[in-house]
Amino acid sequence: MTKKTTGRTILVLNGPNLNLLGTREPAIYGRATLTDIATATKSRAGELGFQVEFRQSNSESELVSSIQGARTGFAGLIVNAGAYTHTSIAILDALSAVDVPVIEVHLSNIYRRESFRHHSFVSRAATGVIAGLGAKGYELAVEAIANLALAAGGRRRNTAAAKTARSKTAR
Ligand code: DQA
Q: Considering the entire predicted model, what is its pTM?
């Protein structure tokens, strides 16, 4: 399905245990808290002309409901599903029904870690994946969505221009 980026709001969804960032295994996840990450993500989005809705939940069902609510009308979705990345077909199914670009983010490089982290259900529904770049990954994901929105705007403008040109030729 072609993903349609719309509007100027990016939804950022964080899964279980990410509320503990800052104190949770800092050698792996860094010292930035989720609030620090939200602030940096919103600030980068603001520079690029976007707004961010930033959420965290430890509950799979809440994450699924958030994803269902974001099927359309968003510029894109940034998802760090935490451990549900590796287990949740429900989150994959919800993301597969989403009509806007999805960027999967992980603070750690999941492919350098335990083998049970090497498989991601989220990746099957993701336009792109950023892993191993720490908190910066969220800002890079915002840039990716901004680029996709810019490209889609260009495509929409070209299609409109082509239509106008065709109708002028037909006259
Ligand atoms: C994580 C990686 C997951 O394997 C882990 O369960 C997390 C965080 C990351 O951001 O690196 O909770 O998604």
A: 0.91
Rounded mean pLDDT of the chain? 93
Is 29 among the catalytic positions?
A: yes
Sheet bearing 76-80, strands edge to edge = 51-56, 9-14, 76-80, 102-106, 128-131
- Burial profile 37-52: b = 16 or more Cβ within 10 angstroms, e = fewer: bbebbbebbeebebeb
Answer for the pair 81, 122: CB distance below 8 angstroms, yes or no: yes
pLDDT tens-digit profile of 24-76?
999 999 999 999 999 999 999 999 999 999 999 999 999 999 999 998 889 99
Spatial distance between the Cα atoms of 29 and 59, rounded to a whole number of angstroms: 20
Give the pair of three-digit tokens for residue 105.
Answer: 């983010």
Ligand 1 within 6 A of 136 CB? Answer: no
106 catalytic per annotation: yes
**Measured in angstroms, how far is the CA atom of residue 108 from the centroid of ligand 1?**
7
